[in-house]
Structures are given as structure tokens and as C-alpha cells.
Amino acid sequence: MKMNLDLDAIFRARLKHFSTELVRYGQYMANGGVLMVAVFLCGLLAYYYPGLVQAVPAWFPVPYALAAVFAFFVTRSPHRTFLQEADLLFLTPAETKMARYFRKTQVYNFAVQSVGVFLVLLLFLPLYQGTVGVSGAQKWWYWLVPLLLKGWNVYSSWIALRLPDRKQQRMYALARFCLTYFALAWMLSEGSFLTYGHIPYGVLAWALLLVWFHVRLMRMWKRHAYQWYRLLEMESGLRLRFYQIANQFRDVPSLQQRVKPRKWLVWVARLIPYKPANAGRLLLFTSFLRGGDLAGMYLRLVILSSLLVLMLPGTWAKAAVLVLFLLLSASQLKGIGNQARHRNRYPLLPINEQQQKLAARWVRRVLLTSQAALNILLWLAIAWS
């Protein structure tokens, strides 16, 4: 029996389903304080940015440093395909017809990732203008070249995903980064990168390498088919990351947590005295350390707040950052007790509901105190230096 698959309808339905989830969880994130923090950080950045630009020493190679930063964001090209586990059974027989479906997903990936590149360009534009002095057509190249390179990276990385060997995929990703960096460094330095005697040797070498890279891509396209398990793994990882972020603000029923051994970090939980009264504390603290969502979010907030305390001048700015990030961490860590309760771990322990709540509160208090202590110590170290 021949099955007719409307791949366009499948793509539209999956994109609509994801867009609905994105809007719903985006509202929870905005109500959970993300919008307030974003507005505050933008205001703080606008106030101190001119001073930071003036503090950049004259010898610092701003165009080449910016090229490295831009190349990282332009080269990084994860691919959302909206594939599902059942597709291994139902869509693989129609692999020869999947080109149109995957072309739509690549357009989606380019559009979404271009927004991120645009924000990075917008963030560093004052630094570039203040140090290099952009004028005329260079302004247009500043915006146009990274976005064109983003499109090329999305296209070439998609073809490289056909390689069955992941080491080869990483090597091609490194080659894409080098090619991207060459182009950006030449553009940001206004054509002076690897140019001697008015001859742009860097551009000539880049063009030759680009031709070689394109020939290799065409061979991959002809020799290798889609790596369905790899595509599904990447899609599952990106979907899980989205759910993990959304789960900080609202319980996501379909979230599947990954537990990592993290032996280098679990020793911290052993500092808690081992006795029946600490059963809840041990469970929650160990789960927090081995979990991939809350621990990662907490560590990022601690690192970001520490960097801001070190970099920002002025007592009030440091104090505002310290308090703001403590509130943000407190908002994120509210999910500690809820996660353990939803995963039915509490019935395994001889503790009642009141003890469970006290244990969750204790873990949150320890984490917030540690964050505040680290920020204050850095603050004092800067003040005394």
C-alpha cells in the first residue's frame, strides 16, 4: 500500500506546535523576571558602555578580537529539524523526498540564528565605532558580511552532518571557523588583514581554501546520506535545552532530565553530616549537583554576577548587580523541591512533608549564601587592591 506524505503540511504543523510552545513559555519567562533583568542590564550597559570603550588601550587589536567573537557566533550552527522518534519508521522510506522539508528547516535555522548574530553585532557596534571609526560603506559591510557568512555556515554545516564520523565533523567545523575568521578579520580591519604591498594575500588564500572546502562539501553530498540518528539526537538535545530553560519558570511535563555523575563536584554534598535527619538535604543537594538544568543555570548566574561585580565601577552598580542576581537565583532555585516531588523521590525517604519543605529551603539558603559570599569577597578584593 503506497503512503502519500505531505511533507509541507508536516513541517507547518510542527513549526506551529513549537511556536505555540515558545509563545506560552515565553510569557512565563517574561512574568518570571527575565524581562525586568533584561531591561535593567540594558540600562546598566548603556550607562557604563562609553567608559568601557574609552578604557580599551590603543594597542589592543579590536578588529581581530571582534572577528574571533563574531566568528564563534557565526560558525556555531545547530540544526533544528523538528524530527521525532517515529520519523525513523515513517519518514526514512521517503528520504529521497525530504530535501524540500529540510530546506525549510534550514531557512528557519538561518532566520533564528541571524537574530542572535544581529544582537551580537549591535552589542559591539559602539566598541567598533569608538576604536576603529567606521564610516561610509564600511557600516554596510559590518552588518552584511557576518549575516552572509551565517547563511554559508548554516548551509555547509548541514552538508557536513552527512559525515558518519564525528571527528571529521569537528574538523570541518574548525575549518569553517578559520574561513569565517579570515573573512571577518579582513572586513573589520578594512582590508589590512594579511595585506602586504597593496596585495591582499589573505583574501587570495581565503578564496582558494573556500573553493577547496566547497569541492569537499559536494563530495560529501554525493557520497553520504542523511544521518537520521544524528539529526534526531541533535533535535532532541536542542528541544531538551529549550524545555530546561522553560522549566525554570514553569513545570514542563514532557521534560526528560539527564543526570550526570559529576564526581568532581559531588564531593561537596559529602560535607553534609551523614545521618537520618539530613536525608532530605542530601537527596536535594546531590540531585542539584548532578542535574543539568538548575545547576547549570545557577553556575552561569554566579559567574555572570561575579564578572559584573569585578568590571563595573561604582558602589551602587555593584550593589544593584549583587541584589538583582540574588533575586534571580532565588527565583530559579524555587524549582528544587518541586523537581524532586514530581519525580517521586520523596516516598523513598523516611521523612514527612514538613521535613521535605525544610530541606528544600535549607538547600536554597546555602546556595544563595554562597553566591552572596563569593560576590562580596570579590567586591572587597577589588576595593582593597
Number of strands: 2
Based on secondary structure, the structural category is mainly alpha
How large a portion of the residues is in β-strands, by DSSP E?
under 5%
Count of helical stretches: 15
Succession of helices and strands: HHHHHHHEEHHHHHHHH
For the biggest β-sheet, the strand order reads 1-2
Cα end-to-end separation: 78 Å
- Stretches with pLDDT under 50, minimum 5 residues: none
Determine the mean pLDDT.
83
Biggest sheet architecture: 2 strands, antiparallel
Overall helicity: over 70%
Protein name: ABC transporter permease
Keywords: Membrane, Transmembrane, Transmembrane helix
Transmembrane segments: 28-49, 55-74, 107-128, 140-161, 173-189, 195-215, 319-337, 366-384
InterPro entries: EcsB_ABC
